[in-house]
């Protein structure tokens, strides 16, 4: 982006700067914002890319005393004789028009979302390629954000592969189940996942107020007798629920449900949380599904008359997830790693036969979306600079 300044002037009694760009567009910048964002070494610590200037020092009614410009920058003198310089590209990027703000927010947060159902073509990349090659790693994390799941193939059949992915991202998300955890049939299981039973659609760990954003699941050993994986695009199911049954959607997106998880693993734990099963942002967009029937508490903090309608709504939601047009079924093979958005997808598995020895073994781990998104932004920059 290179845009030259055609003209810069002060409006609104010195409280606003207008820039007319060479391409004919215009932008407006409040004086208070310009003063707050002065990029000089007194006001901004470039080594930290952080503001030094304090709100305590800011005159919120400040005006521009003097303004000059050339094609590449504007120069502002403040009433105190403090002096600020702003580059054209820097200003253009931060234009307050709705269009410019939307463009910048898209670049920052990768909001593109591809909904899917049973027709999903599971995005698949090579495990070693993702570890070694930035372009492949960028494909991995951008697809993970957009589609919600990526399968990596060609990992070993030994523990330790999800830790390598964690290091590729930055670091993993430690929970009470450890840095990584082993999904296999266990005596006196401290989690329903550690049995041979069917797991119906769930998100992991809604018992935490900040549930893991991304899940990594590596298949080390797979049984022949069942243990198939099922996934569903929770955001897509929510769209359908909102359209077909707005009352159920309204209940699930407004009722706080208690979750609990009590036991011992990495250390002893007694975890409680409250979540809306369908979590919306302030624009009414679904941002997270919080649902695990196993850890949904017997304690339910709602007035008695709301109990049965809640169950009716939940049943509608679960029935929709189980429709064959929505769910995608596959089987993991040893050396496969699935990486998926645990805020968006619900996952499950079919039961399998318990034997005298372990017939199925997955190693899992979690990562935080903030850490994954950070790596995604850095990978985009390194991939785009190369091309
Ligand atoms: Zn300054």
TrEMBL record:
Gene Ontology cellular-component annotations? cytosol; mitochondrion
State which pathway it belongs to: Amine and polyamine biosynthesis; carnitine biosynthesis
Q: Which residues form the TauD/TfdA-like domain?
A: 114-366
Can you tell me where the transmembrane regions are? none
Which BP terms in the Gene Ontology apply to this protein? carnitine biosynthetic process
Q: Which family does it belong to?
A: Belongs to the gamma-BBH/TMLD family.
Write the Enzyme Commission number(s) for this entry: 1.14.11.1
What is the native source organism of this protein?
Myotis lucifugus (Little brown bat)
Q: What does this protein do?
A: Catalyzes the formation of L-carnitine from gamma-butyrobetaine.
Domain Gamma-butyrobetaine hydroxylase-like N-terminal as annotated: residue spans: 14-91
Offer an example of a GO molecular function term for this protein. Answer: identical protein binding
What Pfam family is a match, any one?
TauD
UniProt KW keywords:
Carnitine biosynthesis, Dioxygenase, Iron, Metal-binding, Oxidoreductase
Task: Show the PANTHER family listed in the entry.
Answer: GAMMA-BUTYROBETAINE DIOXYGENASE, GAMMA-BUTYROBETAINE HYDROXYLASE-RELATED
Q: Which residues form a coiled coil?
A: none
**Which major enzyme category is it?**
oxidoreductase
Q: Which InterPro entries match?
A: AlphaKG_dependent_hydroxylases (IPR050411), GBBH-like (IPR012775), GBBH-like_N (IPR010376), GBBH-like_N_sf (IPR038492), TauD-like_sf (IPR042098), TauD/TfdA-like (IPR003819)
Cofactor(s) essential for the protein: L-ascorbate; Fe(2+)
Organism superkingdom: Eukaryota
Question: What protein am I looking at?
Answer: gamma-butyrobetaine dioxygenase
Catalytic function, reaction form: 4-(trimethylamino)butanoate + 2-oxoglutarate + O2 = carnitine + succinate + CO2
């Amino acid at each position: 982006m290179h845009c030259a300044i055609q003209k810069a002037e002060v409006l609104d009694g010195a409280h606003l700067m207008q820039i007319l760009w060479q391409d004919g567009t215009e932008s407006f910048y409040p004086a208070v914002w310009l003063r707050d964002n002065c990029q000089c070494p007194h006001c901004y610590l470039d080594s930290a890319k952080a503001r030094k200037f304090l709100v305590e020092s800011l005159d919120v009614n400040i005006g521009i005393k003097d303004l000059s410009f050339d094609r590449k920058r504007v120069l502002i003198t403040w009433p105190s004789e403090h002096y600020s310089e702003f580059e054209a590209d820097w200003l253009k990027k931060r234009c307050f028009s709705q269009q410019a703000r939307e463009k910048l927010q898209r670049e920052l947060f990768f909001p593109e979302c591809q909904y899917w159902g049973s027709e999903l073509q599971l995005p698949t990349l090579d495990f070693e390629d993702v570890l070694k090659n930035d372009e492949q790693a960028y494909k991995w994390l951008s697809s993970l954000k957009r589609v919600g799941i990526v399968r990596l193939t060609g990992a070993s059949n030994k523990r330790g592969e999800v830790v390598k992915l964690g290091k590729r991202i930055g670091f993993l998300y430690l929970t009470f189940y450890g840095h990584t955890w082993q999904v296999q049939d266990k005596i006196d299981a401290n989690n329903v996942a550690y049995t041979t039973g069917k797991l119906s659609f769930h998100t992991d760990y809604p018992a935490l107020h900040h549930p893991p954003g991304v899940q990594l699941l590596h298949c080390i050993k797979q049984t022949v007798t069942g243990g198939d994986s099922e996934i569903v695009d929770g955001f897509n199911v929510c769209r359908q629920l909102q359209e077909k049954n707005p009352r159920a959607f309204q209940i699930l997106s407004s009722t706080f449900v208690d979750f609990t998880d009590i036991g011992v693993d990495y250390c002893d734990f007694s975890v409680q949380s409250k979540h809306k099963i369908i979590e919306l942002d302030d624009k009414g967009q679904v941002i997270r599904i919080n649902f695990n029937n196993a850890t949904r508490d017997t304690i339910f903090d709602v007035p008695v008359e709301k109990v049965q309608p809640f169950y009716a709504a939940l049943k509608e939601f679960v029935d929709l997830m189980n429709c064959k047009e929505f769910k995608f079924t596959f089987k993991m093979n040893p050396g496969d790693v699935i990486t998926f958005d645990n805020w968006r997808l619900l996952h499950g598995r079919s039961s399998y036969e318990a034997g005298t020895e372990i017939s199925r073994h997955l190693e899992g781990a979690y990562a935080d979306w903030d850490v994954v998104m950070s790596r995604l932004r850095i990978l985009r920059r390194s991939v785009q600079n190369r091309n």
